[in-house]
Amino acid sequence: MFKKLGLISPLLKAIEDKGYTEPSPIQEKAIPVVLQGRDILASAQTGTGKTAGFTLPLLQLLDKGSPSRRRKIRALVITPTRELAAQIYDNVKEYSTYLDIKSTVIFGGVNANPQISTLRSGIDILIATPGRLLDLESQNELSLSDVEFLVLDEADRMLDMGFVRDINKVVKLVPENRQTLLFSATFSKEIRKLANQYLKNPVSVEATPENTTAERVIHKANLVNKQEKPQVVVKLIKEGGMDQVLVFTRTKHKANRIADKLKKSGIASAAIHGDKSQGARTKALAGFKDGSVSVLVATDIAARGLDIPLLPYVINYELPNVPEDYVHRIGRTGRAGASGEAVSLVSHDETEYLRDIEKLLGFKIPQETIPGFERGSLEDFLEQEIELKKKNQSRQGGRPNNRNGKSGGRSGGNNSGGGQAKKNKWRR
Question: What tens digit of pLDDT does each residue of 10-54 get?
């Protein structure tokens, strides 16, 4: 029961309105700690209810405070992506229905003027992505000097996306005498280092074992030829009767290509990545949720923070070259006690990625072959790669395709960021 956690009646009523009766493990562990005024370092993956784990006690602490005549930003929530920021804002609004607390969200990719207008009217809670936050602060459109509570959500992803400098700048702008809540999917060395910098005598809590995926998720690795992946993903979705699928690619360009391929095959699909406008991303996600779009093809960064309840299928069209990203991807399914299925298409050049993922997970992912699409030999694959390089070089008039005068692939102009910056072990 949420009442046992010490929450006030207006919050309990808002929780009841949402239909929740029992708190999740992370909520049971985090809420009392935050209410005590302690800093917290929490390990919680997507789908564990972590947003309510910090939102509910935060609202209660703000409600206890002395309201000023003019509202000032007293709580700041930093998130890595627009989608996650919007999701948290929706939760804050719902849970504060019966409280006199105002909140807003700011992020890039949209006109800043409406955001500035809302900020000028006065708010208590600000949810923001780092870039837009620092932009508006530098323009003197907001002040962080009255912040009492700082929340860093999905801190591991913010590090992956290269936001560490921005986070450092934000921390310098808020008072030292504050309560800091840091949430991360993993307790990596980098996260612990961050916690040592920003948190004071924090309480550490974990909702799930480190770096594990949902227990109810069925993992499969389909061994396929690289060039046959487009046909394979169509076959899997059509013949498997998959009606709500999140497909992951490593690059924006590939996400567009696969979404187009699926559309031509009669499968309603949409791509979502950093080059898409916020309006297009919102429309694609809304279509996916209402069923008019059955397949969403996404890059890791774009999909981070997507709130998709009861998602049954995730397909890794390409394995991530950072094993932790596999955990984040699979965290989209098997949520809230529901079962899920994670299918990975593994070509020869991704064998080492698969080994790294299995090492992180602590178990072997069952390998399968698809009739009619059995994977060829490694020798055949290497020959095909050589032929492909020759064709690419001939298209460029025989010139080498990098500045060092050597033949080989580029470093990845389409990379979606984050873990993509790490060295690709199979790059030739």
Answer: 999 999 998 888 888 889 999 999 999 999 999 876 667 889 999
Instruction: Please report where in the chains the tokens 């921390």 appear, as a residue.
Output: 171
Note whether 2-206 and 217-376 share their fold.
Answer: yes
**Cβ proximity of 284 and 302 under 8 Å:** no
The residue among 77, 144, 133 whose CA lies nearest residue 107 is: 133
Q: Taking a C-beta distance cutoff of 8 angstroms, is the pair 178, 78 a contact?
A: no
Locate the domains of the chain by residue range.
2-206, 217-376
CATH for 2-206?
A: 3.40.50.300
- Domain 217-376 fold is Rossmann fold (3.40.50)
- What whole-number distance in Å separates Cα of residue 235 and Cα of residue 256? 18
Residues belonging to the chain: 428
pLDDT in tens, 90-104: 999 999 999 999 999
Phi, psi torsion values for 341, nearest 5 degrees: -130, 130
State the CB neighbour count (10 A cutoff) for residue 175: 11
- Point out the least confidently predicted range of 216-225, 247-256, 330-339: 330-339
In 3D space, the residue among 108, 149, 110 whose CA is nearest the CA of residue 126 turns out to be 149
